[in-house]
Amino acid sequence: MSTVLDEIISGVREDLATRRAAVPLAQVEELAAAAPAALDPVPGFRAAPGVAVIAEVKRRSPSKGALAPIAEPGRLAAAYAAGGASAVSVLTEQRRFGGSLADLDAVRAAVTIPVLRKDFIVDPYQVLEARAHGADLILLMASALADDDLRELHDLATGLGMTPLVEVHDAAEVERALAVTPAVVGVNARNLKTLDVDRQVVADLLPLLPPDVVAVAESGVTGPADVAEYVRAGAGAVLVGEALVTGGAPSDAVAAFIAAARDVRPHPAGAAPGVTQDKE
Ligand SMILES: O=P(O)(O)OC[C@@H](O)[C@@H](O)c1c[nH]c2ccccc12
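^ thats the input. predicted complex w/ indole-3-glycerol phosphate below
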């Protein structure tokens, strides 16, 4: 049975073929080599008070459709940075998320904090493209990649000075992700095969990550209480999209997330209590 994820990836591959025909690989390699050096996001993630917020520029989602018009992605990103975000995530997938490399360019030009290219990255071309457009981090999803591809793309990105955020959604993916010794691992509360959000997945999987890995809780944050819950479960960073683009005051919202995390004591690994669950 083909899943939402399979359908998204087949669209991504078609769009990739179009871009590759317009800009050959050798040219993207040159642009990547000429781009200003990538920033290392890890020190900033570790130094963040309470929690590092990775704030996302997200126009649409497959589950909800249009979220927000976002006329100026650069302005939104600057607001995130002003609120204390540690990085900005930019969805560049076009068909389901309404993003583009132009959004990445606009954000890159607007902020000095690290920028994540969030896309369904399945080909080395996309990694080079991310660097050519100034990305410091790229998303690599364990659910979308075979072991060899995950390693190849991870090593290509780190060789270019970028930091992969390796995304997982179950214990088997955690094991596969850790095999490439990533610096940053994200547990996605959303199952991309069904689009269901289950924050308990984050609480269950975070204790499986070694302490030297930056642990990111992704998806399902509706407000400060959810951020506190993720931090209590052991998250060092949270990745938030929808709540920030639909809330109206992005700078204040980021600041409120950070404030909510400040006084939370993470539970010792394995002792995290149950967290709430909902369906999108
Ligand atoms: O809008 P939310 O629920 O705050 O989620 C943000 C982010 O985690 C989500 O956009 C995401 C996480 N992993 C992904 C992979 C592909 C596309 C999107 C995503």
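The chain has one domain: 4-262.
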